[in-house]
Amino acid sequence: MRHEFFADVSDDLLWHRKRNVGFLSIPRCITFISMVMDDLAKTKISPTYLALWCHTFDESLVIINDQEAMAFESGFSGTRPVNTWKTRMKELEDLGFIKAAAGRSGTYNYVLILNPFKVIRKHREEGSIKIDATYRALFDRALEVGAGDEL
User: Fold this and answer.
1) For the domain that residue 66 is a member of, what is the CATH number?
2) DSSP letter at 50?
3) Quick check: is 14 in a domain?
4) Which of 4, 21, 24, 141 is the most buried (most CB within 10 A)?
5) Which DSSP letter does residue 150 get?
């Protein structure tokens, strides 16, 4: 189908997960997951979550040796970027999206990313998620990609 609309674009101009390095698997619903988690937190925690996800491999574990670099990658700069980043990490942990273990580099040296669908489902069952347009959009997209039973 791509060639029908973009016949002039050669394969070498596209990023292919089996040919190029630097890719990872993320949920196809990540945009809606991000919106729901930001609503739950009442602040923008999704950039921090996405930065974490971009450091995972298949085991969902992130090893953070440089908190300043992670804070910057999460979008924080200025006078207290690491402190702001830590507050977002705590929020992610409190909401159940991650688990953390301390190490040489601090409280968030080892971070495990949990299945966001299961976390959101738990919040829905507990009544802490509004069943609004954002949640319905997430649910609809999950159905489209075959993950509707996860929510």
Assistant:
1) 1.10.10
2) H
3) no
4) 141
5) G
